[in-house]
Amino acid sequence: MINCLKSLQTNRHSKKPLSDWHDILSSSIVTADELAKHLPVDKNKVLQVTHRYPLRINPYYLSLIKEKNDPLWKQAIPDIREIRDSLNMDDPLTEEAQSPIPNLIHRYPDRVLFMVSSQCAMYCRYCMRKRKVGNPFVINEDTISEGIKYIQKQKSIRNVILSGGDPFLLDDDRLNGILEQLHLISHIEILCIHTRVPGALPQRITKGLASILKRFHPIFINTHFNHPDEITPEATEACTILADAGIPLGCQTVLLKGVNDNPTVMKLLMQKLLKIRVKPYYIHHPDPVKGTSHFRTSIKEGLQIMRSLRGYISGLGVPHYMIDLPSGGGKVPLLPEYLKETYNDKLQGS
């Protein structure tokens, strides 16, 4: 399998290795027929899924898959259970209801999440925005312009989080233009970017991109790694470029059944993140999004993983375990019960 995957990392015409991120992205697998040529999948089932939820796996990420149903396979390859999920909702966190204008979520008083791209380097099968990603008409120049105007008018907003999709799927010039407009708004103090690119398409992170980003300090980036196998030499180089530009890096990991719902795997992931200068920030309990129920674990399992981390790895490597409450309730931290009892101001741990 690995040999056939490696063949995808060359230009189809010149047979030269792909290095530019545009070329890698344009060589992505996007149909059931293409996928069946490279991996042992049920083409008919993949086709059924992709009628509803798009497929994109770029050659780089595909090359990381070691075997059928391994943790990276599960994140990238369409699963028939995505369209057999009758329990969950398209928008359980009521993002649309909290969007005063399209593609801008104003849940908290001092910050907004601003979607500037509907495209991703890979369409993760557990995505919380499966209802939106991959649709080129959902986010456009008009919605971005309206979002900037809204932010200009709302003086209480201090922090803008660029999300999507993936903001780094925008070309340098377009991303620079958006950041410039936001940076000029006097009441905006912090810019953040949420991106999967360092782990899914690290070739996108160039020194040219970093030189653009460092113009807009204070700027923060939250990356997204879910498994130790995603931390490759290429991903390490991408994070090094960003960290060397003075950009603080955090990681928002999603707890996923069959991917990282294991204390040993999660501990190794957190340790590897610190080595590449990425601070573990959140472990997200998976949201009840339609098409993702087969990834859900129990909160009890998540708490057990947190217990396996605290005290066993550096405190720098211990993230917050968070659950996003349905109907717009917001993020809530979940903690194991470490304190058993108190007696006369004396504490006893559990």
Question: If you had to describe this structure to a student in words, what would you say it looks like?
Answer:
By secondary structure, the protein is an alpha/beta fold. It is built from 13 helices and eleven strands. The strands form two sheets. A nine-stranded mixed beta sheet has the order 1-2-3-4-5-6-7-8-9. Strands 10-11 form a two-stranded antiparallel ribbon. Helix 3 runs antiparallel to helix 4. The protein is globular and about 50 Å long. The protein has helices at residues 2-6, 21-26, 32-38, 43-52, 59-63, 71-76, 141-153, 172-183, 197-200, 207-213, 233-244, 263-275, 299-309; strands at residues 104-108, 111-117, 159-164, 190-194, 219-223, 249-254, 279-284, 320-325, 330-333, 339-343, 346-349. It folds into two domains: 2-83, no CATH class; 104-342, Aldolase class I (TIM Barrel). The protein is 32% helix and 17% strand. Residues 1-7 have low confidence and may be disordered.
- Average pLDDT reading: 92
Form type: globular
Class from secondary-structure proportions: alpha/beta
**CATH class category label of the largest domain:** Alpha Beta
Oligomer: single chain
